[in-house]
Amino acid sequence: MTPILTLLICLGTLPKPTLLAEPGSVISEGSPVTLRCQGSLQVQEYRLYREKNPASWVRWIQQELVKKGYFPIASITSEHAGRYRCQYYSRNHSSELSDPLELVVTGAYSKPTLSALPSPVVASGGNVTLQCDSQVAFDGFVLCKEGEDEHPQRLNCQSHAHGSSRAVFSVGPVSPSRRWSYRCYGYDSASPNVWSLPSDLLELLVPGVSKKPSLSVQPGPVVAPGDKLTLQCGSDAGYNRFALYKEGEDDFLQRPGRQRQAGLSQANFLLGPVRRSHGGQYRCYCAHNVSSEWSAPSDPLDILISGQIRGRPFLSVQPGPKVASGENVSLLCQSSWQFHAFLLTQAGAADAHLHLRSMYKYPKYQAEFPMSPVTSAHAGTYRCYGSRSSNPYLLSVPSDPLELVVSASHSQDYTVENLIRMGVAGLILVVLGILLFEPQYSQRSLQDAARR
What we know:
This protein is mainly β. The protein folds into 5 domains: 3-106, Immunoglobulin-like (Sandwich), CATH 2.60.40; 113-204, Sandwich (Immunoglobulin-like), CATH 2.60.40.10; 214-303, Immunoglobulins (Immunoglobulin-like, Sandwich), CATH 2.60.40.10; 310-407, Immunoglobulins (Immunoglobulin-like), CATH 2.60.40; 415-447. It has helices spanning 3-11, 63-67, 410-451, and strands spanning 18-22, 26-28, 33-38, 45-50, 70-73, 82-90, 93-94, 101-106, 113-117, 128-134, 140-145, 148-156, 159-161, 164-171, 180-187, 194-195, 202-204, 214-218, 222-223, 229-235, 241-246, 253-256, 258-261, 264-271, 280-287, 301-309, 314-318, 322-324, 329-335, 341-346, 353-357, 359-361, 364-371, 380-388, 391-396, 402-407. The longest helix is centred in the C-terminal third of the chain and has 42 residues, at 410-451.
C-alpha cells in the first residue's frame, strides 16, 4: 500500500468518487441506462443514494454488479428519475459523496413546439430568441443544445392561458464555426426530473463568408396553383450539404448534394403541388459535411403564384406586334382593376421577367415596358400580371398572350438585296466567259487535228 493511501485511510478521509450515467443522464422512457460509480482506491463496497426519496430499486440489482460500482436499469420509468450521489468504502473507511447526478426521464407528456424568432437564419455575432410552446400547462421548460447534455437552460413558465404554457430563451452570440441545434422539454415543478417528449430538433443557420451558390427554378418563377417546381441550388466549391430557406418561415429544408461534374455539385428541392403559401422569396446555402459552417447566401429568387387575386390586365404593343430589328418598342400593361405593380414575362425565358410599379392614368392603372432597340432575342410570346403591395408574390390571372415578331432591319434588307444582285451579276459574267471561250477552244482543236 502506498504511503499516500495509508495516510488517507489513517485520517479517515477517502477521495470522492465519480458518478456517471451511460449512455447519458437524459434518457427516454423505457430505455436502458447504467449508473456507474468509480472510486480511485481499492474499493470493497459501493453505495448509491437518491436525494429526498430512497432508491428502492437498487436492492434488486445483483451484488456482483454493485460491488463493481454498476447500477443498471433495464427499462427506465419516471420512478427512477431524481438526483443521485454515490459513495464507496475501503477498510472500514468511507469516501466523500460524489458530486450529484441528475437522472432525467423523458416522454411523460406530449412534446412542445420550438421555434426561432424572428427567423432560424441568424447573422454571425447575433442573438436569437427560441420560443418553446405547449398545450400542456407546464411549470417550467428546459432548453438543451444537441450534443451538450450538461448545463441545459431552465426557465419557469411565463404564461398560462387556457391550459397552454410558454417559455422564451435567449441564445447567442452565434458564430458560423459551430452547429447550433436545440430541443426543448416541459416539466412539472413537483417532478423536475420527469420531462415531456422532446420537441423536434431546431437548427439555426449561421451564414459564413465562403463562396455563395446559385439558385434557379424550373420551369420558371411564375407558376399556377397545382403545378410543380424544382428549385436547383448548385456550386462549384465542392459542397455536399444544401439548405433552402423561404423568407419568414420557421424552418429550412436540407438536402445532400450530388456530384454532377468535377467540383460541381447540386441539390434539387421539389415544391408542389403548388399552393398560394409557396409564394415568396427563397435563398439557398451550402456546407461541407466535415464542417458546421454554411456558405454565404445565394442571390434571392422570387416564386410568384398566378390567379390568386381578382382582375385581368390587358397587354398591347406600340408601334405594333411586327417590328424591324433596331426599332423602339413599348409593351403597355393596363387594367381597370387597382394593381400596385405589373409583371411582364416572356415565354421560354425561365428567369427573365420585368417588374414595374403601376401608374394611374384615367381611367386605368398601367405600366409601360420599353424595349429599345429591339433585337431578335426580344421576339416571342409575352404576358403580363397584376399584383398588390399587401402580398407581391400573389399575382392576377395573366393577360391574353401577345406575340412580338422581330424581322431584319431595312439596312439588313438592303445588304441582302445587294448581295443577291452581285451574285446574279457574277453568274452572268461566268456564263458569258464560257460562251466566248468555247468557240476559240473548238477552233484550236480542229487546227491541231489537221496538223497531225
